[in-house]
User: Which sequence fits this backbone?
């Protein structure tokens, strides 16, 4: 009985240490992307230039299980980057991931990212110290698509 109790205690300690290590590693990974605050962009009619908003009008199509990658070079001086993926058909579902120039991943985001299922994912990516300059990449994935879906980003 004593051996079983000791074995059980050792197993519990092992699982606690593995869990603590994994949690620490995940926190380190999350901190690299936590530089940014991502919120729904409820008001897309703001006074900015095209460059301030990221990609405005790339037209493309996507099918079930397909992945499309789009990029936009972002210059210095921005504190908000608006990303607007719009396909308008709420019966289909697309997924969006955003890659910063340093390779951090923001997302994944789905149609309900702004609290509404409406065939659109519209986000503000903010950093009061400035958005990282370089090429931002937008990965669009056909999560649940019947046929082919048109979209803009």
Assistant:
């Amino acid at each position: 009985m004593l051996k079983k109790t000791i074995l059980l205690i050792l197993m519990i300690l092992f699982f606690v240490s593995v869990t603590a290590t994994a949690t620490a590693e995940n926190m380190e990974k999350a901190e690299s992307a936590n530089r940014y605050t991502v919120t729904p962009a409820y008001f897309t009619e703001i006074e900015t230039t095209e460059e301030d908003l990221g990609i405005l009008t790339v037209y493309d199509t996507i099918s079930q299980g397909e992945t499309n990658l789009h990029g936009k070079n972002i210059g210095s001086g921005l504190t908000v980057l608006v990303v607007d993926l719009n396909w308008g058909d709420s019966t289909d579902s697309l997924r969006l991931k955003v890659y910063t120039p340093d390779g951090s991943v923001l997302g994944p985001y789905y149609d309900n990212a702004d609290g509404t299922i409406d065939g659109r994912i519209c986000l503000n990516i903010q950093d009061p110290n400035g958005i990282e300059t370089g090429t931002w990449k937008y990965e669009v994935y056909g999560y649940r698509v019947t046929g082919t879906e048109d979209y803009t980003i």
In short: The chain has two domains: 1-34, 36-152. Confidence is low (pLDDT under 50) at residues 10-32, 46-52.
